[in-house]
Amino acid sequence: MIPLFRKLHHVCVVVADLDKAVAYYESVGIGPWFDYPKGGAYVEYDVPNAQASAAMRYKCADLDNFQLQLCQPPELDSPQRRFLDESGEGVYHLGFESDDLGTAEEQAGALGLDVIARGRRADGSGFCYFDTRAGAGVTLEVRKTQH
């Protein structure tokens, strides 16, 4: 059995003002920041609001042991926008790397974890977010990086 949540890839913090947040992090020595690298087209894409998803603004910083992501959601309805409106800025999700996204999603289903968003590319890379906030305090994600 492949461990689902063992290899932390990133921590994603939802912020109200991406530029202001980046400036603050840089002021305390965290960076450099880069735009989230959009990968190739998805052959499967099931998200709550595709328009909102496309309008999300992200910046990333590769640290020694994981990637820090900042996300500014648009005003459009999305899980990230609802989180920001209801809870304020903070950690929205933890992203874990998986060698086999399909198997990871099957294992999560066997554990009773419901999918809230997912996307797959032809090469098997992609992401899957689970409805874990009530139990874990954050949304958990598994992903496979596109190479």
UniProtKB/TrEMBL annotation:
GO process terms (BP): L-methylmalonyl-CoA metabolic process
Top-level taxon of the source organism: Bacteria
SUPFAM superfamilies in the record: Glyoxalase/Bleomycin resistance protein/Dihydroxybiphenyl dioxygenase
GO MF terms, alphabetically ordered: metal ion binding; methylmalonyl-CoA epimerase activity
Stretches assigned to the VOC domain: 7-145
PANTHER family reported for this sequence: METHYLMALONYL-COA EPIMERASE, METHYLMALONYL-COA EPIMERASE, MITOCHONDRIAL
Name of the protein in its database record: VOC family protein
Protein's organism: Nonomuraea zeae
